[in-house]
Specification:
The chain is an alpha+beta fold. It has 13 helices and 14 strands. The chain has an 8-stranded mixed sheet with strand order 1-2-12-9-14-7-6-3. Strands 8-13-10-11 form a 4-stranded antiparallel sheet, with no helix packed on it. Helix 1 packs across helix 5, helix 2 packs across helix 5 and helix 11 packs across helix 12. The longest helix has 26 residues. The protein is globular and about 55 Å long. It binds 2-oxoglutaric acid (AKG) and fe (ii) ion. Fe (ii) ion binds next to loops. This is Fe2OG dioxygenase domain-containing protein. It holds the Pfam family 2OG-FeII_Oxy.
Length: 376
């Protein structure tokens, strides 16, 4: 059997009642079969995207002293700059450099001895993930307007992601707005922090060898991911690969090449668990560019979920037909139904993820012994 090609969904079909059913059918199929899709005609202004992407190479060309000033090592919230190979996936160094940002938020975490009376227990350590960004100095190089460009971009992708979640609800035939309370202040939880990475994958240092840009993983940072691949040509952006979800016995990688003016959308662990595997959280990776190529740049946006929510809570707002989708089908998933973490606050899994990928930062802010214990 030929490996599946990744579906391309044209969001403009949603605006016309005669074409919308077609879009919803493709979406339902993509959620279930591939867990990876392209979104075209997404409606985000090219100017908003260009304002950010045009500044990306300048950002990476900052001198190392300027990068050090906003190093992730300064931040218990795991935002800021990580140098080449400072991040790990499954214990192995990723050959990439990156800047992590989140929705700009005040600190809410309180240490046990300064507890004020509040409804939410903000002494739980995962609340420490929320906090302000570290912004680069815009006077340097020509980075003027960087913060504004990033904030505008995040706001635009956030509204796209909310619009997209409504389409998922329609595809699943559940009331539109079912998930709204997760993402807005109308619900009982604090609205989540969304995260963005701006990533550079330098070309491989040895001819003929492609290294681990980022190792094989499922996204664990949130509900869904909107990935922007930068570049004018397919060659410039080449490297993203998806593990063929239809044939998990043989390790077969499908390329996810650049499609101009599109986002690549995929789904996080929590979404997969909350739908009993009905939505796939598909494994993917990035190979470093060939030694003869230029660097590859990408910008994933991870739509967050409230840290004090559990997967089991989300499960309850999903109808049994969706939960049965996978078990009623012959097409299996690598998803394990007995997720222990489904009962834990999502913040616990988030903290674990950041501890694993940035151990030194974790040890500095949370203590060596605590990190050791947490990761056991
Ligand atoms: O850089 C990419 O294209 C993908 C990055 C990715 O999968 C991640 O950071 O989770
Ligand atoms: Fe990813």
């Amino acid at each position: 059997m030929d490996p599946p090609t990744l579906p391309v969904l044209d969001l403009s079909l949603a605006s016309n009642p005669s074409t919308k059913p077609l879009l919803l059918a493709s979406l339902k199929s993509a959620l279930f079969h591939t867990g990876f899709l392209y979104l075209t005609n997404h409606g985000i202004s090219p100017d908003v995207i260009a304002a950010l992407t045009s500044r990306v190479p300048v950002l990476f060309s900052l001198p190392s002293e300027s990068k050090a000033k906003i190093s992730m090592h300064n931040s218990p919230h795991f935002v800021g700059h990580s140098g080449f190979t400072e991040e790990k996936t499954r214990g192995k160094k990723d050959l990439r450099e990156q800047f992590d940002f989140g929705s700009e938020l005040p600190v809410v975490w309180q240490s046990k001895d300064e507890v004020k009376e509040r409804e939410t227990d903000f002494t739980k350590l995962y609340w420490r993930l929320r906090g302000p960004n570290q912004w680069p100095d815009e006077e340097e190089k020509d980075l003027k307007g960087f913060r504004e460009a990033l904030e505008n971009y995040m706001a635009a992708v956030e509204s796209l992601s909310l619009r997209f979640v409504h389409l998922i609800e329609e595809a699943f035939e559940i009331p539109v707005g079912t998930f709204d309370s997760f993402f807005t202040s109308r619900g009982p939880n604090l609205p989540p922090q969304h995260r963005v990475k701006i990533i550079k994958y330098p070309p491989s240092s040895s001819p003929g060898v492609r290294g681990q840009g980022v190792g094989a993983h499922k996204d664990s940072g949130g509900w869904l991911t909107f990935l922007l691949q930068l570049g004018e040509t397919v060659e410039e952006a080449e490297g993203l690969q998806v593990l063929n979800p239809q044939n998990l016995e043989t390790e077969e990688w499908i390329s996810a090449p650049l499609i101009s003016n599109s986002f690549v959308v995929n789904f996080g662990n929590a979404f997969e668990a909350a739908t009993s595997g009905g939505v796939r959280a598909t494994v993917h990776r990035v190979l470093t560019p060939k030694s003869t190529s230029g660097p590859r740049y990408s910008i994933p946006f991870f739509m967050g979920l409230p840290l004090d929510m559990t997967v089991n809570q989300i499960k309850r707002s999903i109808p049994s037909e969706v939960h049965r989708l996978r078990s009623d089908s012959d097409e299996k998933n690598d998803y394990a139904l007995d997720h222990k973490w489904a009962e834990e606050d999502l913040g616990v899994a988030q903290l674990r993820k950041w501890f694993r990928s940035h151990r030194e930062v974790a040890e500095k802010w949370y203590g060596v012994e605590f990190v050791d214990r947490y990761l056991q």
